[in-house]
Protein 1
Amino acid sequence: MLALQQDAPHQPAVARDLATPQPAAGEVLIKLRAAALNHRDVWIQKGQYAGIKLPCTLGADGAGELAALGAGVAGWEVGAPVILYPGVEWGDKPAAQGRNFRVLGMPDPGTFAEYTTAAARYVRPRPAHLSWEQAAALPLAGLTAYRAAFVRAQVQPGERVLVTGVGGGVAQVAAQFCAAAGAEVWVTSGEEEKVTRALALPLGLRGGISYKQANWGRTLLQNTGGFDVIIDSAAGEAFGTLLDVAAPGGRIVFYGATLGNIPQLPAAKVFWKQLSILGSSMGSEQDFDNMLAFVNKHQLVPVVDKTFPLAEGEAALRYLEAGQQLGKVVLTC
């Protein structure tokens, strides 16, 4: 089978032929039809991810058909269309992942391949209204967005929500989910053109602004009066502006820190405005099931920006790194 592997940091990913894996007891073999990229894959390439163990087949997101069932697997048939939970061993505490939790695609073999095996407990039916590419775009972004919005921040209908960095896959799905739940959703991006493109998509957004615009926080406050919930992936120096645009009693949840650590946190703004600051990362298998039920209920469709064949996976990674996408970048297997 063909697989896209990372041999060492600071090197291009290589498409090569590997032996097709066989399912052990309790596992299934999946013929992958599509696999989506995440910035995590780029960070692993660049040596900027914790606990790197290479070589490894990259990729956390995948959708395909069951090709074989290992001993003891019941309730599935060969040929069934499925998607994968993008993690392994969350643990038995819903509040947070356990010490053994890890994301597919390093150190465990990932989804940038024609075939992969997985424990049957991590396989779910593909939402019937989604194509292979759309289904592959959903797992990691959808899981992270769902937990941040509904488990951690507890977004409610009628609340005003700000989602930062809408060019990112998780941010885009978070905005789409919150709008589907009945919230009034605003977005930011570093590029005005991306804000315009996002508002033109059928995501249900109310408005947006470039965070490179002068006094963007003040403008948002004038237009909205403040946000009940803010969903962020950047942290860094911009976090102070998020405190400013949060409404009294607001909740700020962040699932990443692409701009680095928060250099200074003015305590008075937090306690005087009665703010809650929440961390979130990935999600449990129950979160995944709840996310899929939400997607099926609202017939939500992830946005796919561009597809590449698996053999051109390195070009897809460079396209993602360039940051011009609006939606997910997907490999067809």
Protein 2
Amino acid sequence: MPSWVTTGCAEYSKRMPSELRIRVTEISLGSRSKSQASSKAIETEGLAILKSIEEKDYVVALDVVGKSMDTDKLALNLANWQMDGQNITFLIGGPDGLSKSCLARANMCWSLSALTLPHPLVRILLMEQLYRAWSINANHPYHRN
């Protein structure tokens, strides 16, 4: 990832309280070539992603065809997830998206935007929205209505 992504993610991660510790796991991109369909790379990535997920994790796949959710709804979901005490795993696909197997494993598919976003930007956007959702739940002044 470019340094601006690493720096941005580290900043939001640092702001999160200890009970909402964020761990980033990067999966290598599947190899892509002109002679090979991107579907092969997507499946390779999907297998690696699925291996990194615990069976008991609640999985949220970020996908353009997922349901949209505003920040207040995310804050409500975050509060519910905390009450359930589950580990939440957010899946961000590579340049060609997530595999069908990853989408099938997901407990929820969430569309951050109808826009096509580069996955480095999605990572920062997700981190900021998680921090914002926490700030709403904690009555922290970061979020303003």
Protein 3
Amino acid sequence: MTEVRVQFVDAYVLRPGAMGFDVLVLRRGPDGRSPGSWETVHGHIEPGETPVQAVLREVREETGIGPGRLYNVSRVEAFYRHRTDEVALIPVFASVVDPRATVRPSREHDRAEWLTPQAAAARFSWPRERRALEDVLSILASGDAGLLEDVLRVC
């Protein structure tokens, strides 16, 4: 029987820019899965971790920067893993970082770029990332979560 599990997290890393937010995009390196594809921060939830703990770790591991203000985007993606007959659930987060933060991509990625939201959406390889980015930008349009800040802000 197909199993459903919360296995991964996604984090959209944003920095304040002159025209709103810039969005961090990462290119997968040649030695892992989907080489050359562009994505947001994405990673596994380790045994014993909560999704929040996992996203805090993954943002630091994949970008070299702290998560800044972290938001629960109130969205969960699903991905069917045909090789293992599992449905992976993926809680989605947004991290607003200092505009001066220096990105140091992990070994999984060979390139990192800050792009406008429109350019980031066009660059993302996965359609689910484009859809989720719309929600992220809608929630954080004012620079924070506005009336939802007390519910969606994690730290």
